[in-house]
């Protein structure tokens, strides 16, 4: 006679309706809730970023109204929860031209994510390549790249943006390229510092001794070890780029005023803060939550990917 031994916690149980719940399903559910309890800030960051991404991708289906359609009858209309007459049809109220504020906030997520993602992509690619070459090759190339980085850091970004945009004009892609060619310095300095330390390690020396080319060593042995730092920095810079785009648009140097953007909404609300507080508060809250989400996500990624940090 053989006895079948069951590990405690892996046997099938029944729920309140009498239906058997498989052990694997319960283990997966337990792991999910355990992950949430151990990573509350990371989960909150994922939720906030995920919400913004969903709004940006599905804006035409989520937004209740056309974000550019003006209605003078709804000019500075109260939000539904603050409207005592019950006549308002806009959930978050209307802007100075009678456009639905909620729809404009949803569509504004597209501008913020485009600037953040594509700007960081340009900066990360450019900075990572220069940092890898400077750290591995060294000598005069390293000195040249680092001195160029010092000059870039010494020049105020806002002043640089004003000069460039006064010549080329505004626009979303001008902002993207401007941010990319300005913030490559952060990636280059981080990557260069790690490469200088990594190329002294034994496994890199062994790869050199085995006859591997410099390009192969950099791509196969060094880059995978610096990728986590690049990913974390990219997440944090995305939040900063969103703030910078909103600031430039607020100053009238960014996105075209006819395109819904959070910075543009803040600019439109400057003269109505006392009489229509919602025109400034809700776009500001959207910016704050989006930046908070990316910062929380970046901090969580740093804690998860940095081997020197113990959970």
Report on the structure:
67% of the residues lie in helices and 1% in strands. It has helices at residues 23-38, 40-57, 59-62, 101-137, 139-154, 157-168, 172-182, 184-198, 202-209, 214-250, 262-268, 278-305, and strands at residues 13-14, 20-21. With 311 residues, the chain is mostly helical. It has a single domain, classed as Orthogonal Bundle (MetI-like fold), CATH 1.10.3720. Strand 1 and strand 2 (20-21) form a beta hairpin. The radius of gyration is 26 Å and the shape is elongated. It contains 12 helices and 2 strands; from the N terminus they run ββαααααααααααα. It has a two-stranded antiparallel sheet with strand order 1-2. Helix 4 packs parallel to helix 7 (172-182) and helix 10 runs antiparallel to helix 12 (278-305).
List descriptors.
mainly alpha, MetI-like fold, two-stranded antiparallel sheet, 2 strands, 67% helix, disordered N terminus
Please tally the helical runs, counting DSSP H or I stretches of 4 or more residues. 12
Strand order of the largest sheet: 1-2
Judged by helices, strands and strand pairing, the structural class is mainly alpha
* CATH class assignment: Mainly Alpha
Total of domains: 1
Averaged pLDDT, please?
82
Overall 3D shape: elongated
Quote the distance from N terminus to C terminus: 47 Å
CATH architect. name: Orthogonal Bundle
Order of helices and strands: EEHHHHHHHHHHHH
**Proportion of residues in helical segments:** 55-70%
Alpha-carbon Rg, integer: 26 Å
Task: Write down the CATH topology.
Answer: MetI-like fold
**How many E-type strands?**
2
Main sheet makeup: 2 strands, antiparallel
The proportion of residues in beta strands is under 5%
